[in-house]
């Protein structure tokens, strides 16, 4: 019996529920109704209580309401004054109740009013929404909300952020939230002690955002005071006029701007005043034709000033007196001395660490530049270093390699596959070109090294122009495969792109290959024999012509592979080789001819030197190259045979 | 060295070098011919711009003579002599540009109500000249730009000093052969890169321009001015050639040829090889500077690209094509290659239609030049000048005063004819 009664009661209750919802307003609708007038007024100055009421209601639907409001999806039904989410439907607008989420029929557009929050109100709603988003069960939405906070935040967001740290489950997000909380504390916390503590916490951090947070705190502006600066301002440092930080002219200009001193008569205004007062070929008795002398001009001007026509001319003494009567100081925008002192100290610590890391980054850059030079020079180390043939067309072999890579990429669109094909193909093409050059030209000139230089130079300009005719003057792209894109980022300061790492690895592989060929193979043995004494080698049954041909082809082929590597980061043009040829010869000469370790050291020296000079004078890479070459010329004075000089009979002459 | 034994009377300089007289006569005839056909002084068959081209070619011949001295006679393949040429051009260009701008500024200020003061004029010149590189201050290198005499001195002093310092460093550490070539090329590259910077004080890659307008000679038309410069270039070439011929004809010439052929042996004979080389290197750099100072007023503009290492290599190409080790060879090479080059690259050469492809010489000339250069090196090491040896072979050799060969070794000339 009891059971039945209960069931009946339940049934009645359940049946009556939708009727209740329709008749009575839900809790959210009630809140909205309570603030109906200010919502409709939609003014940034008065809206805050309505937003606070919705956000603070604790209802699960609050976030949806705020989002609809912000997205201009909240509409007002004129008939009964209720708020709905509305979407344009087939006939009129489809209304959705905020509390139940059920459709509440449709309405024609003229029966509704759209609530149109302006951008200011939307920003306020956004701030309120952050609280919800930071605690959203969906991890991606939390991460998105955090990312938008990292891009830009204000003082109001500090409290919701702090509140959301404790419940955060995800360790990564929690760390980001804590870090952002520290940064926002530095910027916005009203309590100076808390800010100083936060600055202390972040002073070991290299992030760009930390520096971006701290830098505004130590920003100063120059200000002039009639006496000592008052106690209320936070003085960074006193400045003397005429010092490096504040030139005399700038200091006086500040005085003039602050209205503390009369403006100086500039030469231009002096001229103007004089030419305005010419009468009978003279100004105040001074003849005009004598006025190419500045002293006469001042004389005339002073005469005018004595008549009261123009303001008096300020002497240097007057300027000095005015400057001496005032104090100049750099003033922090931030009023609290404790915070600025802490920020200065933290920035100094950070900058020291940034400096160390920059040195590390520079070292990586230098290594990468050195490996590029090494790669460009290793072919020369064979043809020039071992054989003693000076091949000015070596740069063009590099260029041919790069163009081979480009052509292969036109045929094979897959970048990884095309690079794998291009490397042996570039070797084959330039090997053939090298052999042809050796057979046709160089072998006739082994006893005339200077003429080899000129003949190969002729080949060089002919090849350059030929490729210009074929491929045009514009740069052709040689695209690296995707897995070589991007950089290895160690922190905000130190990073190195994968291409450079790959080039370094390639350079090391070539070093090993070179050593293997020269020390462990028959060709290497024969090459060394022919280089030392061709006649004796011939007597031992070695064919010097064949060995020379193969060795030269090997050096040229390596240049071709270097061309593919260089083409990956430099634009492929017919002048590509020109940019490397002088540096390559320098690398070989500085390192010491005939020794691959010398070439390695030479590349390291030149790469490191160039990066080092660029670091001292970062604006000017041209100057860096200039000074590097001058340094090399001087270096040759002290070690004319390079870093590693061959001794004894191997040195030849 | 053994050609003039002590017992014989020393023959005159001209008698020992008949080619000098021939060369000077040809040059004089050429100058008269061009003057007679020019617009400024003659019938006007040769346009003013072509007179300028010919004048420039003569200065190039002069720098080629310098190159021949240092390479053909002393065996130093310098890839820096065109840099010295360019430096000479920069030095004269500074005065031309300064004085010309000063004239313009003074003229524009002449109508001002108040006569301009000295510092105002200098400031206005500075703004005019250096506005293009975002500055208005005169750099230190322009300190003497207002004095023609000092800048003319710098035309020889700056290249000379650079060559002296560089040569001293290079020769004393016994850098020779291709190493020296590479080192001079590096020096040239460093200089060009330095001048390319905006804060080098020489207007970066804009270079110096308007050099064809000679200050205070506004009333002289360009057609006349071009002939004046042509005469000056011809005179400079004649003097340079004479000087070079004199320098290589005596003992000095014998020593530097000895250095070219076997440096160690000359050193063991007690000669100061470094001193000889340094002197020659410096003097030829000065000649190159003078040639440059005559070239660029005719060209009208100079910028760092002119100094790039490739220009110096081309200079070596001219000398090699003309024929090393003979002065007229250098002149012939420079004149021939630069005129033919102008003809081809100027688009005057007719294109060759092969049916499937049209050879346009503007594009293909460089390839032809490069290949012909290889061919000259391989097959005709004596260059065009070597052709004169063929003619010399038709004449009876001049044996007067020389010994009469192994069969008559004991007889003197007089006895043999009796």
Automatic annotation (TrEMBL), chain A:
Localization per record: Cell membrane
BP GO annotations: amino acid transport
Pfam families per UniProt: BPD_transp_2
Main localization category: membrane
Membrane topology: Multi-pass membrane protein
Keyword Transmembrane helix among record annotations: yes
Cellular-component GO terms for this entry: plasma membrane
Signal peptide: 1-21
Molecular function via GO: transmembrane transporter activity
Keywords: Amino-acid transport, Cell membrane, Membrane, Signal, Transmembrane, Transmembrane helix, Transport
Transmembrane spans: 370-390, 419-437, 498-518, 550-570, 582-609, 621-638
Family note: Belongs to the binding-protein-dependent transport system permease family. LivHM subfamily.
Record's protein name: Amino acid/amide ABC transporter membrane protein 1, HAAT family
Lineage: Bacteria, Pseudomonadati, Pseudomonadota, Alphaproteobacteria, Rhodobacterales
From TrEMBL, chain B:
InterPro entries: ABC_transp_permease, ABC_transptr_urea_perm_UrtC, LivM-like
GO molecular function ontology, one term from the record: branched-chain amino acid transmembrane transporter activity
Membrane association type: Multi-pass membrane protein
Cell compartment(s), UniProt: Cell membrane
Stated name of the protein: Amino acid/amide ABC transporter membrane protein 2, HAAT family
Regions that span the bilayer: 148-171, 178-196, 227-248, 275-295, 301-320, 327-344, 364-381
GO CC entries: plasma membrane
Signal sequence bounds: none
Species lineage: Bacteria, Pseudomonadati, Pseudomonadota, Alphaproteobacteria, Rhodobacterales
Alphabetically ordered keywords of this record: Cell membrane, Membrane, Transmembrane, Transmembrane helix
């Amino acid at each position: 019996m009891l059971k039945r009664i209960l069931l009946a009661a339940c049934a009645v209750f359940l049946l009556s529920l939708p009727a209740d919802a329709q008749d009575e307003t839900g809790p959210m609708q009630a809140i909205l109704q309570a603030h109906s007038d200010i919502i409709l007024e939609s003014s940034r100055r008065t809206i805050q209580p309505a937003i606070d009421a919705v956000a603070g209601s604790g209802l699960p639907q609050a976030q949806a309401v705020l989002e609809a409001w912000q997205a201009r999806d909240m509409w007002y039904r004129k008939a009964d004054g209720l708020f709905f989410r509305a979407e344009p439907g087939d006939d009129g607008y489809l209304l959705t109740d905020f509390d139940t989420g059920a459709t509440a029929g449709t309405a024609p557009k003229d029966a509704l009013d759209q609530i149109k929050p302006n951008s200011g109100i939307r920003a306020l709603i956004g701030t309120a929404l952050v609280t919800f988003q930071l605690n959203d069960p969906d991890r991606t939405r939390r991460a998105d909300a955090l990312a938008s906070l990292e891009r830009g935040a204000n003082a109001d967001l500090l409290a919701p952020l702090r509140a959301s740290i404790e419940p955060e489950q995800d360790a990564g997000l929690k760390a980001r939230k804590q870090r952002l909380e520290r940064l926002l504390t530095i910027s916005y916390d009203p309590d100076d002690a808390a800010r100083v503590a936060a600055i202390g916490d972040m002073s070991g951090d290299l992030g760009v955002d930390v520096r971006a947070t701290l830098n505004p705190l130590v920003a100063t502006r120059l200000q002039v005071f009639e006496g000592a600066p008052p106690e209320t301002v936070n003085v960074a440092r006193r400045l003397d006029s005429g010092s490096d930080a504040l030139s005399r002219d700038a200091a006086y200009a500040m005085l003039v701007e602050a209205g503390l001193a009369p403006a100086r008569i500039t030469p231009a205004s002096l001229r103007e005043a004089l030419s305005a007062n010419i009468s009978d070929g003279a100004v105040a008795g001074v003849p005009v034709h004598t006025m190419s002398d500045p002293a006469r001009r001042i004389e005339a001007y002073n005469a005018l000033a004595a008549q009261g026509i123009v303001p008096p001319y300020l002497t240097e003494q007057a300027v000095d007196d005015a400057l001496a009567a005032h104090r100049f100081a750099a003033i922090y925008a931030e009023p609290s001395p404790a915070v600025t002192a802490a920020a200065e100290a933290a920035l100094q610590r950070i900058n020291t660490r940034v400096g160390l890391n920059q040195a590390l980054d520079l070292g990586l850059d230098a290594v990468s530049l050195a490996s590029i030079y090494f790669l460009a020079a290793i072919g020369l180390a064979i043809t020039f270093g071992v054989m003693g043939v000076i091949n000015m067309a070596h740069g063009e072999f590099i260029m041919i390699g790069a163009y081979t890579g480009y052509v292969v990429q036109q045929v094979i669109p897959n970048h990884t596959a095309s690079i794998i094909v291009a490397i042996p193909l570039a070797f084959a093409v330039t090997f053939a070109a090298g052999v042809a050059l050796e057979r046709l030209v160089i072998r006739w000139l082994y006893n005339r090294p200077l003429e080899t230089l000129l003949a190969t130079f002729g080949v060089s300009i002919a090849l350059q122009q030929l490729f210009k005719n074929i491929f045009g003057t514009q740069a052709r792209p040689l695209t690296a495969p995707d897995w070589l894109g991007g950089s290895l980022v160690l922190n905000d300061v130190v990073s190195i792109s994968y291409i450079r790492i790959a080039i370094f690895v390639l350079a090391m592989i070539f070093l090993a290959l070179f050593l293997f060929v020269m020390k462990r193979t028959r060709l290497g043995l024969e090459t060394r024999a022919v280089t030392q004494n061709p006649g004796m080698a011939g007597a031992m049954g070695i064919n010097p012509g064949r060995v020379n041909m193969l060795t030269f082809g090997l050096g040229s082929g390596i240049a071709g592979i270097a061309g593919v590597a260089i083409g990956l980061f430099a634009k492929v043009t017919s002048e590509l080789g020109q940019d490397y040829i002088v540096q390559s010869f320098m690398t070989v000469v500085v390192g010491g001819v005939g020794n691959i370790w010398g070439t390695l050291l030479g590349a390291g020296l030149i790469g490191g030197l160039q990066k080092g000079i660029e670091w001292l004078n970062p604006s000017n890479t041209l100057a860096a190259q200039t000074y590097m070459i001058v340094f090399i010329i001087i270096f040759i004075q002290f070690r004319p045979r390079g870093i590693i000089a061959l001794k004894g009979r191997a040195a030849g002459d | 060295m053994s050609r003039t034994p002590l017992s014989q009377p020393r023959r005159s300089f001209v008698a020992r070098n008949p080619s000098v007289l021939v060369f000077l006569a040809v040059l004089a005839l050429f100058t008269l011919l061009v003057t007679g056909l020019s617009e400024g002084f003659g019938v006007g068959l040769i346009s003013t711009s072509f007179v300028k081209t010919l004048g420039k070619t003569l200065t190039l011949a002069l720098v080629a003579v310098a190159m021949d001295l240092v390479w053909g006679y002393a065996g130093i393949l310098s890839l820096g002599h065109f840099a010295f040429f360019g430096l000479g051009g920069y030095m004269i260009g500074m005065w031309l540009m300064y004085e010309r701008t000063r004239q313009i500024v003074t003229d524009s200020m002449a109508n001002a109500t108040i006569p301009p003061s000295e510092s105002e004029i200098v400031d206005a010149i500075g703004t005019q000249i250096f506005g293009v590189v975002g500055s208005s201050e005169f750099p230190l290198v322009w300190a003497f730009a207002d004095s023609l005499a000092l800048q003319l001195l710098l035309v020889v002093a700056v290249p000379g000093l650079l060559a002296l310092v560089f040569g001293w460093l290079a020769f004393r550490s016994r850098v020779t052969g291709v190493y020296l070539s590479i080192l001079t090329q590096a020096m040239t590259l460093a200089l060009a890169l330095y001048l390319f910077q905006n804060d080098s004080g020489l207007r970066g890659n804009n270079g110096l321009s308007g050099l064809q307008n000679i200050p205070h000679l506004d009333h002289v038309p360009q057609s006349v001015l071009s002939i004046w410069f042509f005469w000056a270039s011809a005179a400079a070439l004649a003097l340079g050639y004479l000087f070079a011929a004199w320098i290589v004809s005596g003992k000095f010439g014998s020593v530097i040829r000895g250095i070219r052929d076997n440096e160690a042996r000359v050193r063991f004979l007690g000669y100061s090889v470094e001193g000889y080389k340094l002197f020659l290197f410096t003097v030829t750099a000065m000649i190159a500077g003078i040639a440059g100072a005559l070239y660029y007023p005719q060209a009208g503009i100079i910028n760092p690209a002119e100094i790039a290492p490739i220009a110096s290599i081309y200079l070596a190409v001219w000398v090699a094509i003309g024929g090393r080790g003979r002065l007229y060879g250098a002149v012939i090479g420079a004149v021939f290659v630069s005129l033919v080059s102008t003809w081809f690259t100027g688009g005057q050469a007719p294109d060759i239609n092969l049916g499937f492809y049209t050879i346009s010489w503007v594009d293909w000339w460089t390839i032809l030049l490069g290949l012909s250069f290889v061919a000259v090196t391989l097959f005709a090491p004596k260059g065009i000048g070597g052709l004169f040896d063929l003619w010399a072979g038709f004449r009876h050799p001049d044996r007067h005063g020389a010994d009469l060969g192994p069969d008559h070794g004991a007889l003197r000339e007089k006895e043999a004819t009796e």
